[in-house]
Amino acid sequence: MPGLLLGDEAPNFEAETTQGRIRFHDFLGDSWGILFSHPRDFTPVCTTELGRAAKLAPEFSKRNVKMIALSIDSVQDHLAWSKDINAYNGEQPTQELPFPIIADANRELAVKLGMLDPDEQDKDGIPLTARVVFIFGPDKKLKLSILYPATTGRNFDEILRVVDSLQLTAYKKVATPVDWKPGDSVMVVPTLPDEEAKKLFPKGVFMKDLPSGKKYLRYTPQPE
Ligand code: BEZ
């Protein structure tokens, strides 16, 4: 079954993009990476998504996350569509976006990466690409995967929030609770013994008493 599971290494595919030919691992380098796919160029939901992604590019860059999009059309179409995306954002209608778009006109990558949405088809009855979000760590392993159908636009605020959570786990060994937002307290992971947690989190570890008497609900202020 094609597709990617958490922990899988990113495939080192070669592809044409709006910023030239890439090899995916070289593109990622030592950075985090986000690959987000789109059903088709010149479609309304996709245009709003890429517009928002372009506006948020400085936020991804601040977090050391390289962005790359994919849509099942040609580079030429992507470049023409980019003008519409910039115009939608109220910018000059140039063909420059702050990230490349992969051309996958024959759906080769979309199939390989398990991105097709069987419910949304083109005029010839061929499935379009779903809205996949893959986030890779600097080790090129898949850290997060979200799959939306073609008809639901993504929430890029949520995507930035999960990047913040993934990076806190990677660098500070904490987990983030339900509806966590940057600045909120975070959770000590269950595998960390109390003594080590006290040393690792000098701002303190706060336990919530529970009817079971088990001391697993441990919070600490978000580490710097
Ligand atoms: C869109 O981007 O607007 C779209 C694409 C495919 C199916 C439905 C909506």
UniProtKB/TrEMBL annotation:
<feature type="active site" description="Cysteine sulfenic acid (-SOH) intermediate; for peroxidase activity">
    <location>
        <position position="46"/>
    </location>
</feature>
<comment type="similarity">
    <text>Belongs to the peroxiredoxin family. Prx6 subfamily.</text>
</comment>
<keyword id="KW-0511">Multifunctional enzyme</keyword>
<keyword id="KW-0575">Peroxidase</keyword>
<dbReference type="GO" id="GO:0004623">
    <property type="term" value="F:phospholipase A2 activity"/>
</dbReference>
<dbReference type="GO" id="GO:0005739">
    <property type="term" value="C:mitochondrion"/>
</dbReference>
<dbReference type="InterPro" id="IPR000866">
    <property type="entry name" value="AhpC/TSA"/>
</dbReference>
<dbReference type="GO" id="GO:0045454">
    <property type="term" value="P:cell redox homeostasis"/>
</dbReference>
<dbReference type="InterPro" id="IPR045020">
    <property type="entry name" value="PRX_1cys"/>
</dbReference>
<dbReference type="Pfam" id="PF10417">
    <property type="entry name" value="1-cysPrx_C"/>
</dbReference>
<comment type="function">
    <text>Thiol-specific peroxidase that catalyzes the reduction of hydrogen peroxide and organic hydroperoxides to water and alcohols, respectively.</text>
</comment>
<keyword id="KW-0676">Redox-active center</keyword>
<dbReference type="InterPro" id="IPR036249">
    <property type="entry name" value="Thioredoxin-like_sf"/>
</dbReference>
<dbReference type="GO" id="GO:0005829">
    <property type="term" value="C:cytosol"/>
</dbReference>
<dbReference type="InterPro" id="IPR019479">
    <property type="entry name" value="Peroxiredoxin_C"/>
</dbReference>
<protein>
    <recommendedName>
        <fullName>Peroxiredoxin-6</fullName>
        <ecNumber>1.11.1.27</ecNumber>
        <ecNumber>2.3.1.23</ecNumber>
        <ecNumber>3.1.1.4</ecNumber>
    </recommendedName>
</protein>
<feature type="domain" description="Thioredoxin">
    <location>
        <begin position="4"/>
        <end position="168"/>
    </location>
</feature>
<dbReference type="GO" id="GO:0051920">
    <property type="term" value="F:peroxiredoxin activity"/>
</dbReference>
<dbReference type="InterPro" id="IPR013766">
    <property type="entry name" value="Thioredoxin_domain"/>
</dbReference>
<dbReference type="GO" id="GO:0047184">
    <property type="term" value="F:1-acylglycerophosphocholine O-acyltransferase activity"/>
</dbReference>
<dbReference type="InterPro" id="IPR024706">
    <property type="entry name" value="Peroxiredoxin_AhpC-typ"/>
</dbReference>
<dbReference type="Pfam" id="PF00578">
    <property type="entry name" value="AhpC-TSA"/>
</dbReference>
<keyword id="KW-0049">Antioxidant</keyword>
<keyword id="KW-0560">Oxidoreductase</keyword>
